[in-house]
Amino acid sequence: MTKLLGIPFFIWNFVTSILVSYGWYLFLLVILYGAFRHKIEAAYIKWRRRRDEFEYAAKYHKDSDLTRSRMEAVMAAREKFQREHELKAAEAERKRLEREEKKKAELAAAIQENGSPFRLGGASSSSTSSSSKGLRAEYFPLSGDTGSGGYKAPKKSCCKKGGGCG
């Protein structure tokens, strides 16, 4: 038995005869698969899911104890998640109330210190002035004179290309 490229001759002969006889058909099949691969795979996944659901329904339809135990496990998991959610909600509410009480205490301290919580220039305004040091004191955005040339729109012309008309 002779070998061609490490493949037995009868296998090589069979493969080449298939390619010679049906090569263009195989080539066309590969091209079509590449073009419609997404649709083919989506249809396969849909078929597979439908088949799995049918097998699942058949399995649980036959064994009612299995169905009951599964439903009990689902309910237990739901109750567990509900308890965890209620604990987290209670903790978040407690933290929110603490923040509100802290704000009220700060407001009461500001009233005691300044006499009014909305007075400007008090001790609490020093914290806001440190954040605005980067702005120029003479900056007036609506005055029109910002110190730079700024952007000016080009003049409108009756010509579409922007050149002068004759």
Automatic annotation (TrEMBL):
One of its GO terms (biological process) is intracellular protein transport. InterPro entries: Selenoprotein_S. This is Selenoprotein S. One of its GO terms (cellular component) is endoplasmic reticulum membrane. The chain crosses the membrane at residues 12-36. Residues 116-166 are annotated as: Disordered. Residues 80-114 form a coiled coil. Keywords: Coiled coil, Membrane, Transmembrane, Transmembrane helix. It comes from Apolygus lucorum (Small green plant bug).
